[in-house]
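ok so I'm stuck.
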Amino acid sequence: MLTVFEAPKASEAKVKLKNGITAYLVADATAQPLVSLQVAIRGGAYLDPKGKEGLTSAWGAQLRQGGTRSLPAEKLDARLDFLAAQLNTYGGNEEAGLFLNLMEKDVKEGLALALEVLTQPAFAQDRLDLWKRNRLRALEQLNDDPAGIERYQVGLLTYGADHYAARWPTAAALQGLTREDLLAHHARMIHPENLSISVGGRFDKTRMVQLLNETFGALKAGSEAKKNGLPPAPTHTPKPGLYVVHKENPQGRVSFLLPGLKRNDPDWVTVEVMNFLLGGDFTSRLTYLIRTQEGLSYTVNSRFSEGAWHPGSFRAVFQTKARSVAYGCRLMLGELKRMQEEPVTEAELAKAKGALINGFPAGFASPEAVAELFLNEAYRGFSETYHATYRDKVKAVTAADIQRVARKYLPLGKLAILVVGDKDAVEAGDVKDKPGKLSEVAPLPVVELPLWDPMTCTPLKK
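replied:
not stuck anymore, here's the structure
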């Protein structure tokens, strides 16, 4: 008799440490003798002061790379190597964190090392200088790669130049970062109310709670520590248009951009099913038409980002020969329009729903994955009951529901279409086989965007 998979419950894994830190513990006595720890830190690049962009990124990297007060970087590296442990830290746009993976038998020492890295960083000057040199070198090369150009132009179009998600550190900001800046930022960030923890693997839960209380549970807020707020929502409203960035290249990169929704929105599951059919799977309509049938692109897909604190965004992408860009855009537009105008077939819908339902248990494949899932969803404020009702919501989606959300969340008149490639070639199109200019693809204003100077984060003059 087949057993119906029941999603684990976050409430059953959640514990509170003695200082109020929430931890999610998922143990499996039959798993390999490994333990994974994740510490999520509330904060990110959205906290970087103007002129100090890159501060959170530098701080997050140097927590690990710069050693601790009692263990210089080389000795910390050697000790972790001896334990066959992996310990990494990072600072992102909307969160920072620490990851540790090691053998079950070394958990006590590993937790002590992780706490030391988090609370007693040395921020070695030579390691900080190396990090800055590497970042500056990457900045210098940003406009060499069409993918890098596309990435920052998508951010600018979606969020606006003043939003943290579209900004990057200038050369002056990077060069101006000091060890004292990192120390001050660290004093602010390490507050128990900014921390949450997950532990997954093979361990005794009672003993793990004891060890966590002896380490992270004993952490107290310093005099400079602050409880960080949530990332601010963008105030920028994306403008519809066909945006072209000139970059001499035989290929063109294309992104269709639209505003999205929060994952807590009642429409989210229906939108997920709709996008699975549109471009969210290798069997989707966009992949079949643009890759399989027309042979224009190896990679083509679409997705709605999971909006947490503010609505996410929609993005559909493909890359093809410059002269095929206009034709590929017409095909993609046609599929977006068809999703709105024609109900999906019952066979398509059944296949999509079956794939999402049958693939659901894979998200809970290991205790580490489950613990990290609970932590990351709690960090973003998602409902703890989401997974308990997910499959029933997928089952309830109808063809009419798909058509409704397609009309609501794929408004063609609000599209921002970004093309990065040789402007003359992409505009001319495939004159011989698939005639049609790029500017004639949609009734949208055509705007030529400049490259930005990566060193100053300002538009380059034409």
